[in-house]
Write a structure and sequence with these properties.
Number of strands: 2
Strand content: under 5%
Shape: elongated
Low-confidence stretches: 1-19, 217-229
Distance between the termini: 65 Å
Helix content: 55-70%
Number of domains: 2
Radius of gyration: 22 Å
CATH superfamily of the largest domain: Tetracycline Repressor, domain 2
CATH topology of the largest domain: Tetracycline Repressor, domain 2
Number of helices: 10
Order of helices and strands: HEEHHHHHHHHH
Largest sheet: 2 strands, antiparallel
Mean pLDDT: 79
Structural class: mainly alpha
C-alpha cells in the first residue's frame, strides 16, 4: 500500500526490489505510451487492460491514473502525441531553388518514411480497428496524419501551377488521394510481410510508390528539364 500511495502521488515505486528512478511527468508519460502501444498491439485494444500496461513497466495503476483517466484517454493521447510528433519531424520546407518535381518527390518520400517510423503503422492499425467503437480515434488519425500530409502535398503540387499538365482540380484531387494511397501500401506491406512470397524491402517499395505516383500524375513540367524515374 505504501508503494502504491507513493506511485499515485509522484510516480515512484519499487521494481524487483530496486527503488525506481524518479521521473519527470513527461518521461513517465512516454514510458506509459511505450508500454501501452506494445500491449495494445500484442493483445488488441479490447482485450488489453490497464493492469496489463502497468505490469509491463512495473508501476501501480494509481501511477497510471495520475496521468490518464481511462484506457480510452490513454489510447487517444498516445495517438495524438506520437502521430503528431512524428509528422513534425517529417516537415521540411522546400527551397525556392527546388523544381516542382524535386519538391514533390521530397514530399512523397517524407510521407513514406513517416509510415516506416517505429510504432506509426501499429498506431494507425489501432485507430482503424477502433474507429467503429471510438470515432475519436479515427478523427485523430485523420487530423494528425492524413489532413496535414494532404496540405503539405498540395503545396508541393502547387509549385508547378504554371505547368498545364495538371489542372487545379487535378492537384486538389491528387492531394486528397495520395496520402491514402501511400498509407494503404505501407499498411499492406506491414500486415502481410510474413505471408507475401514477394520479399521487397520498405526502401524498394517506397521508391516504387514515389515513381509510380509521379509518372501517373504528370509530375514533371517541361521547364524542369528532368524526367521522372
Amino acid at each position: 500500500m505504501a508503494i502504491e500511495h507513493r506511485e499515485a502521488l509522484g510516480g515512484e515505486g519499487m521494481d524487483d526490489g530496486q527503488h525506481r528512478r524518479r521521473m519527470q511527468p513527461e518521461e513517465r508519460r512516454a514510458e506509459i505510451f511505450d508500454a501501452a502501444l506494445a500491449v495494445f498491439s500484442e493483445l488488441g485494444y479490447d482485450r488489453a487492460t490497464l493492469n496489463d500496461v502497468v505490469e509491463r513497466i512495473g508501476v501501480s495503476k494509481g501511477c497510471l491514473y495520475h496521468h490518464f483517466d481511462s484506457k480510452e484517454q490513454l489510447l487517444l493521447d498516445l495517438m495524438r502525441v506520437r502521430l503528431g510528433c512524428a509528422f513534425e519531424e517529417d516537415e521540411e520546407t522546400p527551397t525556392s531553388d527546388d523544381s516542382r518535381e524535386a519538391a514533390l518527390r521530397a514530399r512523397l518520400d517524407a510521407i513514406w518514411q513517416h509510415f516506416q517510423k517505429p510504432g506509426q503503422l501499429e498506431l494507425m492499425t489501432l485507430a482503424i480497428n477502433e474507429f467503429p467503437k471510438i470515432p475519436e480515434a479515427g478523427r485523430v488519425l485523420f487530423e494528425e496524419v492524413v489532413a496535414r500530409k494532404r496540405e503539405s502535398l498540395r503545396q508541393a503540387l502547387d509549385r508547378g501551377s504554371q505547368c498545364k499538365a495538371a489542372s487545379q482540380a487535378d492537384i486538389e484531387t491528387a492531394a486528397l488521394m495520395i496520402p491514402w494511397m501511400i498509407m494503404g501500401v505501407a499498411l499492406g506491406l506491414h500486415q502481410f510481410r510474413g505471408i507475401d512470397p514477394l520479399k521487397l524491402s520498405p526502401e524498394q517499395v517506397g521508391k516504387a510508390v514515389t515513381n509510380m505516383i509521379l509518372n501517373g500524375i504528370g509530375g514533371v513540367c517541361a521547364e524542369d528539364g528532368a524526367e521522372a524515374t
